[in-house]
Structures are given as structure tokens and as C-alpha cells.
Model the fold of this input.
Amino acid sequence: MGVRPPKRFAPLDAQKQNYHGAPLLKGIIFDVDGTLCKPQSYMFAQMREALGIPKSTDILDHMHSLPQPAQDEAQTAIRAIESAAMIEQEAQPGLNELISYLEGRGVRMGLCTRNFDAPVTHLLQTFLPGKTFFPIITREFRPPKPDPAGILHIARAWDLEDGADSLIMVGDSMDDMVAGYKAGAATVLLSSKDNEGLEEHEYTGVAIERLDELVGMLEGGFEEREGR
Done:
């Protein structure tokens, strides 16, 4: 896939000039772990130890390759690790400011994650009660990120005729950037010590250090970086 031109969206503040004639933003899709909540990267080492696989092997691909009953046993082990970790979830700085802003501007929000549903539900109930995210794509959806299928599924659920071209994918991993880019969405990376170097990847449209940095970007007109 070739490098596409940087994406732009019109200011969400209707009083601001849309100098480039940019299209309207039609929704934002978020990853969960490491994006809406602080990274819990230690989980992945625990998961690989439980499954007996190296860092180079994708956890979900490995689980789905197993025959029964080994596949169910692996799923149970991984869910136990995630369930223990979800009790220690911490909201990302700027989370409530960004979500309240998007809600006030009427921007649709969806989730696309490789987590199973319990940690996602726990995060929403704990940190974002009453906020609406739909659809919510979890591990049960196949194929998972980095395949763009989950993002495109959300675009269809929102009846978007241009696929994901008018959407933004916000995440913290290579899987998020690849899935967003290949779906045709703009991409926003939430930078951390766990993803150093990914800011300069060709699939990363914009890098931020706090979620609420997006408020100003969206209010004045979103633009991906040049020279990717």
C-alpha cells in the first residue's frame, strides 16, 4: 500500500474558517488498553508465559490456531490475566475532557480492541459512566487488528458511504496504526515509552501525549502531519 496524502477534517467549531475545504469528521474510533486507560503492558509477558510462546508470536493468532479443548483452555487463562489486571486500570490523562468534548460536539464514538468484553465494560462503567460508544468491537470479532475489518464494520454500522475515509482511529500500538491506515481512516497515536519510534512511522498521522490534546486539533481543523 502506497503512502496517501495527509488527511484533513473541517473544524468542529463552525465559526472557524475551513481553509482547505476539508470534509466533515464523521466519527472517532478508540482502542482501549493503553489508549483510554494507561498501558498494562506487563499483561502480555504474563500471557505469553501462560501460553508458552515467544514475543514474536501473536497471542490471538496462536490461540485461534489451537485445537479444542486447548483453545478454550488458553482463552480461559488469558481472560484470567486480563480480569486481574482490569482492577488496576487507570484512566489516561485527559480522557474525560476529550470524551465530554466529543459528546458535546455530537461526534460518534466507537471502540475497536483486542481485549475481551469484561475489561472494556469495567473501564466504561468506572471512568466513563453514561457515555455512549457504539459499536464496540472486542476479541470475539474476527479478524482482529491489525486487520482493518473491525474499523470497516463500525463504518458500515454508521451507514457511511465512504467507508472509514471520514473517521479517525486513536490508538497506542502498531496494530492500531496499521488497521486505521489500511481502513482509510486518519490515525492518531497516543505516545508512551512503550511505543517509542512509532511516531515517525508512515502509518501514524499525528502523535499526541495526552488525549485532550485532540480537543484543540479538532476544534480548529484536524490535519495529519506532512512528510510521512
